[in-house]
């Protein structure tokens, strides 16, 4: 008897408001979210922020050099404390609403004397911490316990990541936010879909040839391709290929490899010989997602390294443009009354793994149609 064919997730969960709320509580409350790299906040008072499904997070470096994460809300009347995606607050963080003043370690230092809080125990009203994990220099937070640590989840690949020196990475520019009118799972699905590469990404196909492959571990998917030595017909790709030997800090087998690691549920690391970036698929609504992205690189001022990073950007700008069209086509098609779900190829191991994980967290994800509402 032939094995039963696995199927993709049902279309209704890509637009249903009720299911989106289930995901908020059952998937995202305990999911690790990356905020920044420690080298994004190199000096005392430097901060980075993240807004995620109603939560506001502040990552702040203290006078003692320690990087800490807090809720970005005053303990008096909940006013947002730090503005913008990044900045420096000086020697203390002062609420712009009532001037409560916090140290860089989150402790409440003082309240204005005219406000009548003379008997307030300041030690009980410091900034509320957010659970934090620093993984290879990247600062992660979560709002409820549940999942293993990021290090445990990424453990199958720690050895191969080590030569890239994640802890030494420095930001290349600022975070880019790219809104997309699709469900966050469509972005995640597309990222882990290998079958569309030879159909819809001619540039990647020229670069990788038939080498593109994928595998699924319990908490992380890996996809990768080897940049061929046969010169591409495209000048950006051809120039990039020629620069691969420059990155001799890597073992020989990694100098031409592009590796992609998708961490459950909504984060991906793109690891290239010349740079690393993260892509975070931030759910905004059932049919809206914000792709949050920034690149990092090892300190390397060589002209060849700068050229490789520029050519990488040109190549991937085209890939992103192609993917933007693809995910919108899929989201549009999910609204068709003719479509419930589709069969998954035995090669689509990452999509199958993602579907199984989501069904384990939210059993309704296995239903072909929305459950009937109670009368």
What does this structure look like?
- This protein is α+β, with helices and mostly antiparallel strands.
- It contains nine helices and 17 strands.
- The protein has helices at about 15-30, 150-155, 160, 185-190, 195-200, 200-210, 235-240, 305-335, 350-360; strands at about 35, 45-50, 55-60, 65-70, 85-90, 95, 100, 110, 130-135, 140, 170-180, 215, 220-225, 255-265, 265-270, 275-285, 290-295.
- It has a seven-stranded antiparallel beta sheet with strand order 11-17-16-15-14-13-12. A four-stranded antiparallel beta sheet has the order 4-3-2-5, with no helix packed on it. The chain has a three-stranded antiparallel beta sheet with strand order 1-10-9, with no helix packed on it.
- Strand 7 (about 100) and strand 8 (about 110) form a beta hairpin.
- The model has no long low-confidence stretch (mean pLDDT about 95).
Report on the biggest sheet.
7 strands, antiparallel
Uncertain regions spanning at least 5 consecutive residues: none
Query: Based on the structure, what is the oligomeric state of the protein chains?
Result: single chain
Approximate strand percentage = 25-35%
Shape: globular
The average pLDDT value, as a whole number, equals 96
The arrangement of helices and strands along the chain is HEEEEEEEEEEHHEHHHEEHEEEEHH
- End-to-end Cα distance, whole Å, is 43 Å
Number of helices: 9
β-strand number: 17
Structural class per helix/strand content? alpha+beta
Spatial strand arrangement across the major sheet: 11-17-16-15-14-13-12
Query: What gyration radius follows from the Cα positions, in whole Å?
Result: 23 Å
Q: Helix content range of the residues, please?
A: 10-25%
């Amino acid at each position: 008897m032939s094995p039963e064919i696995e199927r993709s997730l049902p279309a209704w969960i890509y637009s249903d408001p009720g299911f989106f709320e289930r995901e908020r509580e059952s998937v995202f409350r305990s999911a690790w979210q990356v905020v920044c790299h420690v080298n994004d906040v190199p000096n005392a008072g430097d901060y980075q922020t993240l807004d995620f499904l109603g939560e506001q997070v502040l990552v702040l470096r203290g006078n003692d050099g320690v990087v800490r994460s807090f809720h970005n809300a005053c303990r008096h009347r909940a006013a947002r404390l730090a503005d913008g995606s990044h900045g420096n607050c000086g020697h203390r963080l002062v609420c712009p609403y009532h001037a409560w003043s916090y140290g860089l370690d989150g402790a409440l230092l003082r309240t204005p004397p005219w406000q009548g809080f003379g008997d307030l125990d300041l030690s009980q009203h410091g900034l509320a911490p957010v659970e934090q994990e620093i993984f290879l220099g990247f600062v992660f937070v979560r709002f409820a316990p549940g999942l293993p640590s990021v290090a445990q989840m990424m453990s199958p690949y720690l050895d191969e990541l080590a030569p890239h020196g994640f802890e030494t990475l420095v930001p290349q520019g600022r975070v880019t936010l790219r809104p997309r009118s699709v469900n966050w799972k469509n972005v995640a699905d597309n990222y882990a879909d290998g079958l569309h590469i030879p159909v819809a990404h001619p540039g990647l196909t020229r670069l990788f040839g038939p080498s593109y492959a994928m595998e699924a571990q319990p908490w992380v998917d890996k996809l990768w391709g080897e940049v061929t030595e046969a010169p591409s017909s495209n000048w950006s790709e051809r120039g990039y290929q020629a620069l691969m030997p420059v990155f001799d800090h890597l073992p020989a087998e990694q100098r031409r490899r592009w590796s992609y690691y998708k961490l459950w549920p909504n984060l991906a690391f793109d690891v290239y010989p010349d740079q690393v970036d993260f892509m975070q698929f931030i759910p905004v609504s059932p049919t809206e997602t914000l792709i949050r992205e920034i690149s990092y690189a090892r300190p390397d001022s060589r002209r060849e390294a700068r050229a490789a990073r520029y050519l990488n950007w040109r190549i991937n700008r085209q890939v992103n443009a192609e993917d933007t069209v693809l995910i919108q086509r899929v989201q549009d098609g999910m609204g068709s009354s003719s479509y419930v779900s589709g069969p998954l190829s035995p090669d689509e191991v990452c999509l199958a793994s993602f579907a199984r994980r989501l069904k384990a967290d939210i059993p309704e994800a296995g239903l072909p149609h929305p459950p009937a509402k109670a009368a």
